[in-house]
Amino acid sequence: xxxxxxxxxxLSQQYIPGGVNSPVRAFKSVGGTPIFFQRGQGAYxxxxxxxxxxxxxGSWGPLILGHAHPKVVKAVQETAVxxxxxxxxxxxxxxxxxxxxxxxxxxxxxxLVSSGTEAGMSVIRLARGYTGRSHxxxxxxxxxxxxxxxxxxxGSGALTFGHPSSAGVPTETAAHTLVLNFNDVEGLKRxxxxxxxxxxxxxxxxxxGNMNLVKxxxxxxxxxxxxxxxxxxVLIFDEVMTGFRVGLTCAQGMYQIQPDLTVLGxxxxxxxxxxxxxGKKAIMQCLAPVGGVYQAGTLSGNPVSVAxxxxxxxxxxAEGFYSKLALKTTQLTDGLTAMARKHDVAFCAQAxxxxxxxxxxxxxxxxxxxxxxxxxxxxxxFFHAMLKxxxxxxxxxxxxxxxxxxxxxxxxxxxxxxxxxxxGFW
Length: 426
Ligand code: KE4
Hints:
single chain, alpha/beta, Aspartate Aminotransferase, domain 2, 4-stranded mixed β-sheet, 37% helix, binds ligand KE4
């Protein structure tokens, strides 16, 4: 007998904390019962009750080709029949590393891991080992995975070190992390003037996607690059979300700024567990077994994950892939904005390549505080009304959305027609 979403949710909570294996899936931010899915194909996926949704989450970014792309599935199948894991080097890992270094000028070496969090925690240890310094800077609203050093919220004053943003993180750990305001150039300058010689690294999402979507200003990233160079701090771009999502040369290509290290994930795994931290050889050589910075992983560079990643990265290099993706994403955001205007709803939206932000506000937010000023309740209402219409947006006002190459014009039109109905009853 098929169980309903609610029945599965009730049962799951007996065996899995919150009934989910990652908190955002629990709908706590938007309320209601999470949807349990059983099949995906292209731009669509179906829940256990047989309802079909147009998917604008795409597993939180990896599915840039849509669900179950035939070439990705074929690559996984053909690899799996020859073995799932060897715990030893394979040629495919070399092929992927070479391809990434070809695609991104800032890359000279690659270390593959299994999640963005693993890459984020490793890149911080690497930067600390390379510089011999302990302090790191992150920005409020940016998320880099759940490593202790990065689960830190802003300290009370501009120059005070952070406090844990999660239970279980020792105060001493957070004490090495300084949390600054995103896009605040003056705050950056003041901090480096005061502490520059002690800063091992700065880690930033060049297009933030974890406080909803907020673009870094070119001035902010340019100053960040200048300061890191001047003080010998490692500049780390966390491109887990933006990597090969905003364009073939990622956000670093869009801004024409070269970080020293980059964190990649999501798209490069094509939906399978795969992430990487990459960058300048002089820094990467500090990693074991060459250097003294230890990092390891049983399933790092897993052949099946690498096969899915390679198949995905081959497809996104097609002529016009990103121009078509950006056009569709912009049609969505412009169309939703037009529908809101038609019904006099305070709403705006923006697209960056194949990712987008939706805001119940009259103006596009440029900072964490401006995002927090958006109408969250209105978003939650919109989310559920669109869910009823068979449109699945991210279940949180503080997440970005994603369009895939599988989304057709007709899917965008259907989404806009649904929004017209929803805003009409606002
Ligand atoms: P994972 O450990 O979830 O693979 O990657 C962590 C991570 C690192 N850096 C950035 C910029 C990220 O966006 C993420 C993960 N993103 C979230 C969505 N905002 C994943 C969804 C989830 O946590 O379930």
